[in-house]
Automatic annotation (TrEMBL):
Highest taxon above the source species: Bacteria
Single Gene Ontology BP annotation: CAAX-box protein maturation
Keyword Coiled coil: no
Domain CAAX prenyl protease 2/Lysostaphin resistance protein A-like per the UniProt entry, residue ranges: 121-206
GO MF term list: endopeptidase activity
Pfam families: Rce1-like (PF02517)
Keyword rRNA processing: no
Protein name (Swiss-Prot/TrEMBL): CAAX prenyl protease 2/Lysostaphin resistance protein A-like domain-containing protein
Keyword annotations: Membrane, Transmembrane, Transmembrane helix
Classification via InterPro entries: Rce1/LyrA-like_dom
Transmembrane region(s): 12-31, 76-101, 121-139, 151-168, 174-189, 237-261, 297-315
Length: 324
């Protein structure tokens, strides 16, 4: 039988900080050497391995901590649909940030490989969609989300999503991951299954890989003059127009995502694990003084250090853009 222990928030935060530093150093190095192989090493060695080792050494129990519970086919399909509908919302928030940045510097192309043929497409689907969907969800919607439930389920979802955004260390791609983290976190909490987050994450990254592949196919069919135009970094005006356009689409798709989410909420209303978690949350809220004493500020020191480093990286990125 698995040991039922309360997860240490400080331990989770230290692990997060160490993993983030490995991402910035080792991850940066291996991806510079070989981007695709570097991404594989980053996901499976730097992101997946630390939480698995941590859970094993602490004796928490993989099934309980990671919520390795089955997800119904119905809910799997709904998660896919919700992710597709939420994609424009995440893009909208990224575009807002990019529009602001474009007023002070040049927007940088995302450092993500795109496929030029069907073979590369399937390779990238495995690396970017499947691998990231498994490894990052085990870390964030698995260990981090469960660890922060001591502070209440809503706090856990919000904090884990913010940490997910910080983990990308990219000012242009901070807001989008936070939005996705909120959605995936709530889906995992509501369904009681980490597979909801994995399926959603794979779907989102799969959309990005597919769009990149399709854009390359379109470029191949266009005259050179048009290709040169498409390759130019978008200016503030074009980004503003794109933001408004995507914002309208995001509003419509967001309504659809909400109604689909209501189906999952209705289906899981009486699920035992939700009741147990809710009871824990209510108990913690009733004992708010005890929590504040127990979870002192020093517990969040690793997160504060990560935020400081993120700000420095973001400043460096903005400074580089201003010089272009």
């Amino acid at each position: 039988m698995e040991k039922r222990k309360e997860i240490d928030i400080l331990g989770v935060n230290i692990l997060y900080f160490v993993t983030a530093m490995l991402l910035l150093t080792v991850g940066y190095y291996v991806q510079n050497k070989d981007l695709k192989m570097g991404l594989v090493i980053t996901e499976y060695v730097l992101v997946l391995l630390p939480p698995l080792i941590y859970i094993k050494l602490k004796g928490y129990g993989f099934k309980r901590v990671l919520r390795l519970n089955p997800l119904s086919i119905k809910h799997s399909l709904i998660v896919i649909a919700i992710t597709i509908l939420v994609y424009p919302i995440a893009l909208f928030f990224n575009l807002i940030v990019m529009t602001f940045i474009s007023t002070i510097g040049k927007i940088q192309s995302p450092p993500i490989p795109t496929a030029n043929n069907i073979t590369e497409y399937f390779i990238l689907m495995v690396i970017i969609a499947m691998s990231a969907g498994i490894c990052e969800e085990i870390f964030f919607r698995g260990l981090v989300l469960r660890g922060y439930e001591e502070l209440g389920s809503i706090h856990a979802v919000v904090i884990s999503s913010l940490l997910f955004g910080l983990f990308h260390f990219n000012i242009q791609n901070f807001a989008g991951p936070v939005v996705l983290g909120l959605v995936f976190g709530y889906l995992v909490y509501r369904t009681g299954s980490l597979f909801a987050g994995m399926i959603g994450h794979m779907t989102n990254n799969g959309i990005a890989v597919t769009l990149g592949f399709l854009m390359n196919l379109v470029k191949d069919q266009l005259p050179q003059s048009n290709m040169d135009t498409m390759s130019q970094i978008p200016n503030t005006l074009s980004l503003s127009v794109a933001t408004i356009f995507v914002g309208v689409i995001a509003t419509i798709t967001g309504i659809g995502a909400y109604f689909l989410l209501r189906i999952i909420i209705k289906d899981t209303k009486n699920r035992k694990e939700n009741r147990d978690i809710e009871d824990i949350r209510l108990e913690k809220e009733d004992e708010s003084i005890e929590i504040s004493n127990k979870t002192s500020i020093y517990v969040f020191t690793p997160i504060l250090l990560t935020v400081i480093i993120f700000i420095y990286v973001a400043y460096s990125q903005l400074k580089y853009m201003m010089l272009q």
